[in-house]
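$ ./design --mode recover --in tokens.txt
reading tokens...
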């Protein structure tokens, strides 16, 4: 069953696409206001797609059902997760990317973004996707070791990693660790810290707009 998603279309025919993945327990509507705040929808003919994670029981949250890309089994401090769930949702995001390709948007004009658990999915999907993307944006998240592929399909794809210095949900060290792992493998990654908790800040939004703007052509 395909993922439900909120899609925001530009007034003119879309030339670019940004697929934005929300965090654990949240929903696709969370980042719609931010997309409009970036003012890229009509300025650069960007289609935004905000997929919704399926409802599932989350072990670390006492087994409660909530929107979750995958089950988290333990904090250690990096997450112990249900790898099969991660593989499944990554395939579903890959299908969304394939749909954009079929509609005439080249992979170099597609950016995959994710916050927190959505960022871990963005890493996994992008790094294992054979189409070179225009960029990958990972916010307040971590890199699951199993996400690192043997073939580096995104070796030349810009990867922006952002994290809050006061993040008490996902430790900033996990964001830096992802940056170091990717850089050591030759990926074009950059890492930025912001004075914020597990959230998005105005200065971060400004940096995101500049980074995305530089990827759009």
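writing sequence...
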């Amino acid at each position: 069953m395909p993922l439900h998603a909120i899609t925001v279309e530009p007034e003119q025919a879309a030339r670019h696409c940004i697929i934005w993945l929300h965090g654990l327990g949240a929903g696709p509507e969370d980042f719609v206001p931010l997309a409009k705040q970036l003012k890229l929808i009509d300025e650069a003919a960007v289609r935004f797609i905000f997929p919704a994670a399926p409802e599932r029981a989350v072990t670390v949250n006492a087994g409660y059902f909530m929107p979750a890309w995958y089950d988290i089994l333990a904090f250690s401090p990096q997450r112990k997760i249900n790898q099969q769930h991660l593989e499944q949702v990554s395939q579903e995001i890959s299908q969304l990317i394939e749909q954009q390709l079929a509609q005439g948007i080249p992979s170099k004009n597609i950016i995959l973004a994710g916050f927190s658990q959505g960022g871990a999915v963005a890493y996994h999907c992008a790094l294992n996707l054979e189409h070179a993307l225009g960029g990958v944006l990972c916010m307040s998240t971590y890199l699951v070791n199993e996400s690192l592929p043997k073939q580096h399909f995104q070796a030349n794809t810009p990867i922006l990693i952002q994290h809050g210095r006061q993040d008490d949900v996902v430790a900033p060290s996990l964001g830096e660790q992802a940056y170091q792992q990717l850089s050591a493998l030759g990926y074009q990654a950059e890492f930025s810290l912001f004075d914020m908790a597990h959230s998005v800040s105005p200065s971060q939004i400004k940096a995101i707009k500049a980074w995305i703007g530089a990827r759009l052509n």
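exit 0
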